[in-house]
Amino acid sequence: MASIDIKAPGTSQLFIGNEAIARGALEAGIGFAAAYPGTPSSEILGSLAQVAKNVGIYAEWSINEIVAMEAAAGASYAGIRALAAMKQNGINVVSDFLSNLVMTGTGKAGLVLVSCDDPSAISSSNEQDTRPVAKWLDIPLVEPGDFQEAKDMTKWLFDLAEELGTVCMLRSVTRIAHARGNVKIGELPKKQFKARFEQIHDLKSVMPTTYIPMPSPFRHFLLHMKLDKARDKFESSSFNRYVGPDKADLLIVTSGSCWLYSQDAVDALNLRDKVGILKLGTLWPLPEKFIAQYLNKSDKVLFVEEIDPFIERSIMELAGNFPPDIKRPIFCGKRSGHLNAFGELNPDMVIKAVSSILGLAYQSRDSEYHKKAEALIKSNVPDRTMTFCAGCPHRATFWSIKNALKLDGREGFVTGDIGCYSMALGPAGFFQVRTMHCMGGGAGVANGLGKLGQFGFDQPIIAVVGDSTFYHATIPALINGIYNRSNFILVILDNGATAMTGFQPHPGTGMTAMGEPTQIVSMEALCRALGARVEVCDPFDLKSTTSTLLNIMAEDGGAKVAIMRRKCELVRAKQNKAPYKVHVDSNKCIGEACGCDRLCTRIFLCPGLVWDKTTGKSKIDEVICSGCGVCVDICPQGAIVREAA
Amino acid sequence: MAIIAKGCKELLSEVIEKGLCSLCGACTGSCPYLTYYNGRIALLDNCSRTDEAQCYEYCPRTFTDMNAISEKIFGKPYMEYEIGAVKQIIMARATDSTIIEKAQYGGAVTALLSLAISEGSLDGAILTGTSDDKTPIPFLAQSVADVLQCTGSNYMACPVLGSYNQLPNDSHSKLAIVAMPCQVSSIAKMKLEPPDNRVNVDNIKMVIGLFCTWALSPDRFHRFLKENIDLAKVRKFDIPPPPANRFDVYNAKGVTSFPLEQIRKFTMPACAYCIDMTSEFADISVGSVEGIDGWNTVIVRTDAGADLIDKAKKKGKLQIEKLPESNLQHLKEAALLKKRRALSEIVKRSGSRDNLLYLGLSVELAKKLLS
């Protein structure tokens, strides 16, 4: 598949949605891109960073989303078109800056924010819908309905952002971001970038150039004028269109990937001549006149959109302003219960909703289909729950955390965070994680718990956080814990990568997004400078890690830090050979008998170990085993053997 | 032996959480689930076994059939109600001055073990050692020098049996164990029903039981000591015989004494339910001699015990005297007192004279002791 900087205007290229967005940004002539990795948004900056040197732009993995957005705004102020990309959670991190940015306006160059939402939270902690953010921030919002639009809209959005002088937002969802389709590409501009923050120094005639949000009411008024201008443009945008009969039994109003589901549903029900589809690409501000002319096409309207009833409510607001003589259609959607206000939608759900509204007998698929499909797939799927990779340092770390907390005996527990290690809330991490919220949230919650001693609270608190998350959002919580003497241990799972999103570099890795070596910001030096007791452990050394944790736990006082340092197994495996060859001595393995009760395949649950029912012994799955050798140290019978590979 | 279908969960709920655990260590070291740490037994993960749980079976505070054990070890039912089966009861002390210098009382245990190891009838001994901060730790002595490192007592409970459980299954080392009455009782249970997936219990050739009225909590008492004295400088702990009523701590400069009343609150609550003062199922039981400094009371109970004592006597390793009659009477009274107190505590807890919790005594003996 082609790189996003391919020079073949007019040809079709197979891009995932995120690459299409990145290509659109390149065609728009961006010079600056910044992001924090987060599924499903990561490939936007990832693909831009790959070609950055080649096309002469700058791309960075920022420490977090707000810095990415602020940095992009900085570029805009100096006349460089800039893009910031993030997943839905990142929008919350950015929102404080955004609420001021909309007042100050952007610089001379267009500034675009991309938010990739994750309906059903397939790779997320929540399925927040970010479209309402555009509404409360008063910024133009668009949503592509396919890959071509993803590219075209992004390019067009830079022109709009530049013309309006305000940040514009493009919302995508997992099924656009990660699905792959043909995109007809355009020209890449030959651009000589010249960055300069232009200042007017003639104070007698005019104030110097400033980007400040005051006076706020005036700026707010100006912002509304920008929105009005955007609405005018959206009225004639080709990203909004109607396909269907002149007079329809039902009008579907939809956008994004739901447009595709709606088309499938109408086709499946063979209702092309009875049901019209109004597909919207510009979601805020809504093109009111454009929409009004189609609302008359039917007595019934069904809103098909994922998560929040954003379009549904906005259009109902519009309908409230209709002249009294205009008949209001019956509005169906989430409010009426025809579709869920949670989770992803699919064509089947839309078929159901349409059938129900039109009183059609909907032929659902074979009721046994689900069972049959499951049976068919099951034979090819290993029998195990979601777990860490074989050789993952997190498994070893949580093993020691579990044992240390049990040995300590005060019913201590773990406040969790966002990363692969979130899985520690289940069997992968021995059910150790008790709370999980946003990035940095675990340490924040620990701050409160660690100050409850005066109310009789004596349970040890371990806040776990990944290395990337540590830099992203945990440092203020740690400082708070040190300064306010909150009694908790911050365990940093330093696997040297932003592993869950695809091994992006972070300030602890010494490499930039564009592959340049850079100065490492040492987490232990940082924590020590803050005044915390800092211990660095090798999680594969279970005994010493457990004993270090017990030792720190026994100590009172403010927040303390234990760094679990081991490279992510997926990164290590790419760099060098497995350290050990591991096998089970079946003479020594006592399986389910008293004295073991198959600890390795019942509790430890590394996928590299399998239980052989026929022999009643454990064995190594040589394909999966990564040769880390940690299981050797948990086997109570010394039956697992490691030999240098 | 009763048919037991109970596991670690029951051990936790019936013994450990009920305050009946004496930290003998029998449930530790043999599986990955139960572990000793800082004065308590922790359950690290749930074991799903219910039909063959040795942790439950060998716990000295789960059902213990005294008659069956006595039959196994002494070839007769358990009808003793003071100091258990006796072949011979004597007063002894080590002849070796280095042993006497380090010994708690007469150094008999050290002398016996040193002899057996040096002449090769034993390969080692499972003992209680002392860490630098004076916490008791299980210790596998494999030489006379190792044995000498473990002289003296600090009166704190120590999960010594965990050390036996951790021996490699295929080990053939002939071992002695120096144990408290609860531990001796656990080993007796193992002798009755030998454990699976552990080293052969017959490898324990010699069980030397110590006299015990109660043990101190290695967690709470150790914390108390740490707060009051410099543990690194301690040379010896001692509870001199009545009427002293003191707990003495010796260092290079002299003695720090604590009133026994102050110490008593740190005893293991489990000890209140123990009827055994003299380690009745041991081969040899050893304690102090009231009123006679520098000597041990030695109860020889089995042929193996008698052989070792004879050898020590012949080789001049032990000086042996008759135990004065008044001392024997005193010992019996004290042992009976412990039995009666424990039984009354057991009945108080169970709520019925017919329910002796873990204790499997014959009806007649129970009646006699409870009268």
Question: Helices and strands in order, then pairings?
Answer:
The complex is a heterodimer of chains A (645) and B (371).
Chain A: E1 12-16, H1 17-27, E2 32-35, H2 42-55, E3 58-61, H3 65-77, E4 82-87, H4 88-104, E5 111-117, H5 131-137, E6 141-142, H6 147-164, E7 168-173, H7 174-177, E8 180-184, H8 216-235, E9 241-243, E10 250-255, H9 257-268, E11 275-280, E12 282-284, H10 288-295, E13 300-304, H11 310-320, E14 330-332, H12 347-358, H13 369-378, H14 393-408, E15 413-415, E16 433-435, H15 441-449, E17 461-466, H16 467-483, E18 489-494, H17 523-530, E19 534-537, H18 542-553, E20 560-565, H19 569-575, E21 580-584, H20 599-604, E22 609-612, E23 617-620, E24 640-644
Helix pairs in contact in A: 1-2, 1-6, 3-4, 9-12, 14-18, 15-16
Chain B: H1 8-16, E1 34-37, E2 40-43, H2 54-57, E3 64-65, H3 66-74, E4 88-94, H4 97-102, H5 108-119, E5 124-130, E6 136-141, H6 144-149, H7 161-165, E7 175-179, H8 181-192, E8 204-210, H9 220-228, E9 234-238, E10 246-251, E11 254-259, H10 260-264, E12 284-288, E13 296-300, H11 303-314, E14 318-322, H12 325-350, E15 359-360, H13 363-370
Parallel strand pairs in B: 3-15, 5-7, 7-8, 8-12
Antiparallel strand pairs in B: 1-2, 4-13, 4-14, 5-6, 9-10, 10-11, 12-13
H/E element sequence of chain B: HEEHEHEHHEEHHEHEHEEEHEEHEHEH
Total strand count of chain B, please? 15
Q: Which strand order do you get reading across the main beta sheet of chain B?
A: 6-5-7-8-12-13-4-14
Per DSSP, what share of the residues of chain B sits in E-state strands of 2 or more residues?
15-25%
Determine the fraction of residues in helical runs of chain A and give it as a percent range. Answer: 25-40%
Low-confidence stretches of chain A: none
Tally of extended strands of chain A?
Answer: 24
Helix content of chain B: 25-40%
Biggest interface reads: A-B, 22 and 24 residues
Cα-based radius of gyration of chain A, to the nearest Å? 28 Å
Instruction: Please give the CATH class of the largest domain in chain A.
Output: Alpha Beta
